[in-house]
Amino acid sequence: MELNHYNDPSVIDGCTVPVKVSSRSKIAPSTVSAGGVSFGPEGIVIIAGPCAVESREQLLGTAEVVKRSGGLMLRGGAFKPRTSPYKFQGLGEEGVRMLEEARKNTGLPFVTEVMDTRQVEFVAQYADMLQVGSRNMQNYPLLKEVGMQKKPVLLKRGMMATIEEFLLAAEYILNQGNDQVVLCERGIRTFETTTRNTLDLSAVPVLKNLCHLPVIVDPSHGTGHRWMVPAMAKAAVAAGADGLVMEVHYKPEEALCDGHQSIDPDELDELMSDLRKIALAIGRYIAEPRSSVL
Ligand code: PEP
Ligand code: MN
Known about the structure:
Layout: E1 10-12, E2 15-17, E3 32-34, E4 37-39, E5 43-49, H1 56-69, E6 73-75, H2 93-106, E7 110-113, H3 117-126, E8 129-132, H4 140-147, E9 153-156, H5 163-175, E10 181-185, H6 203-210, E11 215-217, H7 219-223, H8 229-238, E12 243-247, H9 265-281, E13 285-286, H10 290-293
Parallel strand pairs: 5-6, 5-12, 5-13, 6-7, 7-8, 8-9, 9-10, 10-11, 11-12
Antiparallel strand pairs: 1-2, 3-4
Helix pairs in contact: 1-2, 1-9, 4-5, 8-9
This protein binds phosphoenolpyruvate (PEP) and manganese (II) ion.
Manganese (II) ion binds next to loops.
């Protein structure tokens, strides 16, 4: 019989947890390392950057903003999953090369999305971390492909996915030999229409109880509104998130994608200072760039 790790799952809090991601399979929470940045139970990692890489000027300008505010990692989509085929689809490989230039300028490692197995090898040559987006959480060939890479993976929760399905998606990656996986709660679809998604912050303690992987939160896609991002970012840290991934743009009103949910440089600065206080209040800290620790 084919070896099937789902044959021997543990049931925790009514959730059938696959073996490799299960918190019962490890004595301590995992640490995932991406371009020198550690996701895990200690420092809280702030990832920020534009929804999409739009131009060299926009990316380099925004990367400087992230660096100055104390962000540890840059985000930016080069291959964009857009609902409408008529909207900006991203700069593709050129965008990935711009991210590399931004890393060279600022020292910030970057995470960027892969949507298709054919993109993975190229993106993995450049990126510090591969993102599998919400729409692809159950794209099994893609999960297997990123599982075969030697790069950490940021796996976002499918917008319709249960926690069990989310954990099974992560298990696909671990099954290929890649245990460097960070889970990201980014909101789920509910009947509610005042927010783009319903940010399920209860997923943070639930996931941390069920599995050993680091858990971060995306309050940008989780709310869809720039003005709600600081409140939910702070709530996520208070709830125990190991990091945040947020959309920031140096000129949100000019963004080609998701400007309505992108905070500006001043808002990021103010938020970072609030996050430091909240982290301290719960016995943690916002991880600092290595140069300022030395
Ligand atoms: C993104 O982070 O760029 C993105 C498209 O988010 P999600 O996959 O969560 O919708
Ligand atoms: Mn976006």
